[in-house]
Every structure is written in C-alpha cells, then in structure tokens.
Amino acid sequence: MSPALLWMIAALVAVGIEIFTVDLTFGLIAVGAGTAAISAVAGAPLWLQAVVGIGVSVAGIAFVRPLALKHLRKSSGLTRTGVDALPGSRARALSEVTGDDGRITLKGEVWSARLDLDVTSVPVPEGGEVVVTRIDGATALVYPVDPR
C-alpha cells in the first residue's frame, strides 16, 4: 500500500473523530495528514512526509485552533434569537395601541400589543410606528416612535 494512501486513510480517520469531538484538534491533524499525502505523491521520502504532516498539524493546533475557537465562542455567546431578538425592533400598529390592547405587525408577523406604561401612556394610532421594549408572553410591550 502506498504511503500517500496510508496518509489519506489517517486523514479520513481524523475527520471521523473530529465529527464526534468538534474540538478542531483532529480536523487540523487531518489537514496535516493530507499535506503528508501530498508530499508522498510528490515523491518525498517517508521521513520528510512525517515532518511535513506533523509540522502542519502542530502549527495548525498552535496558531489556527485558538483563533478559530475564540471566533466561534464570541459569535455564539452574543447572538440573540427568538423573542430575545425582538426588543428594540420597530413595528407598525395595525390597530390603535393602548395600555390595554392593540395589534402590530412585527417582523412580518401579527402580534398583540399594549403600551409599555413604564415608558408612556400616549396611545399609538393605527399605522403609527412603535418600538418594542419587551415581550410579555405573547404580547409585545411597545412605545411610539413619534409621540404626539
């Protein structure tokens, strides 16, 4: 069996382990094994193939992995989704919005709404623009963008 084929098998095994660990370590080992396979195809001696493979793997783990993990952790921790993403959004009143009742269209959906009485008690007329302050159950608490 050729050394290039052995390196590719090692790379595939590392990718398989990476799928289950999702730690980026075995993915970078797979990259190293892939580069060793390329050097084998290019005709490098076995010792040079090993040096290339190990060198690329160690460099990736030392330099690429910390940056990638930092980026992945930063983006996943700050992303708001679902109702947590709605406060601060603008919406349009489909009916008059008072402290007790109203309807708005928010991000393409129709929501029940009422004024956030901590902010204002000025009713919003139909067609008026509002800002969502928070979500209470299935009701958006809002205040008018341009109170009159």
Give a written overview of the molecule.
- The longest helix is centred in the middle third of the chain and has 33 residues, at 46-78.
- It is built from three helices and five strands; from the N terminus they run αααβββββ.
- It has helices at 3-21, 25-41, 46-78, and strands at residues 90-93, 103-106, 109-115, 129-136, 139-144.
- The termini are far apart.
- The protein has two domains: 3-78, no CATH class; 83-144, Beta Barrel (OB fold (Dihydrolipoamide Acetyltransferase, E2P)).
Task: Summarize the topology.
Blueprint lengths: L2 H19 L3 H17 L4 H33 L11 E4 L9 E4 L2 E7 L13 E8 L2 E6 L4
Parallel strand pairs: 3-5
Antiparallel strand pairs: 1-2, 1-4, 2-3, 4-5
Mean pLDDT: 90
Continuous helix count: 3
In percent, how helical is the residue content?
40-55%
Indicate the radius of gyration in whole angstroms: 28 Å
Q: Which sheet architecture does the biggest sheet show? A: 5 strands, mixed, barrel
Count of DSSP strands: 5
In whole angstroms, the N-to-C terminal distance is 82 Å
Low-confidence stretches: none
Oligomer: single chain
Q: Strand sequence of the main sheet, in spatial order? A: 1-2-3-5-4
Beta fraction of the residues? 15-25%
Global outline: rod-shaped
